[in-house]
Amino acid sequence: MMQKIVIFDMDGTLIDSKKDITISVNHVRHVNHNLPPLSEDFIVHAINMHQRNLPKLFYATEVYEESDRAFFEKHYKAQCTEHPYLYDGVKELLFTLKENGVKMSVATNAPTLFAQTMLKHLQVAELFDLIVGADKVKASKPNPDMLHYILDFYAFEREKDKAWMVGDNSKDIESAQNAKIDALFAAWGFSASGTHAIVVKHPKEIISIVL
Question: For residue 107, which of 8, 71, 94, 154 sits 20 to 30 Å off, Cα-Cα?
Answer without folding.
Answer: 71
